[in-house]
Amino acid sequence: MSGKQNLLGWCLTILSVALCCITIPFSLFFCVKVVQEYERVVIFRLGRLMPGGAKGPGLFFVIPCIDSYRKVDLRVLSFDVAPQEILSKDSVTVAVDAVIYVRISNATISVTNVEDAIRSTRLLAQTTLRNILGTKTLTEMLSDRDTVSHCMQATLDEATDPWGVKVERVEVKDVRLPVQLQRAMAAEAEAAREARAKVIAAEGEQKASQALSDAAYVIAQSPSAIQLRYLQTLNSISSEKNHTIIFPYPADVIRNFLASAAKG
């Protein structure tokens, strides 16, 4: 049976080639094709893959009626993953979307092993996004997007390798939270900021009290320090150009007065 099929195939091929030769130059419009630099073409003859793999770039020839071909674009393609409703590890429902960058690494495999390589990759990306983010907490989703993207890229790349697809990059675009959760997180952040402000104010009061205590100790150890402080105060008052005049009473006079009063 296989021999009869091969013989029939050869007969059809010879007949098609003879017909093309008879109808030259009109047949050249149907036989000669062009492949761009970023494209490859996979040719099937009587349903069988032509040896040698994908053709291109440049010119290639097909035999009308018995040859069929399919062009494959090798450029990097990007597509959005529709927002997925995901239940996180800590039981929070979020909507997550992503963008995937892929390219065809093997044109022949992408045609023979899968019906639509790019569409299949898009569907697989949706499932992979749900599976990976379902094992993460909300905090990990928000803070470790790079880790999630790399994990998703590795998983997709391994799964799509038999399809001749190379996953170049995965980016998690947005993580949308419920409105109630956004309000709760905003209130929590505001409370944390207020707590930090109170701690900073308390630390400032503590440092100011320590500075006053140190100043009082210095003044107590040096009686002339209070006189210098009087002079500094007078200098500050006079620089403001006001009408108030203050005469400080000498501290030694006050001490002598207090001492004589105690003796009397």
Automatic annotation (TrEMBL):
Determine if Transmembrane helix is one of this entry's keywords: yes
Q: Which UniProt keywords apply?
A: Membrane, Transmembrane, Transmembrane helix
The UniProt entry, under Pfam families, shows: Band_7
Query: Where, by residue number, does the polypeptide cross the bilayer?
Result: 7-30
Band domain spans which residues? 30-189
Q: Which SMART domains match?
A: PHB
Q: What is its main location?
A: membrane
One Gene Ontology cellular component annotation held by this UniProt entry: plasma membrane
Question: Where does this protein reside within or beyond the cell?
Answer: Membrane
Homology family: Belongs to the band 7/mec-2 family.
Specify the protein name. Answer: Band 7 domain-containing protein
Q: Please name the source species.
A: Panagrolaimus davidi
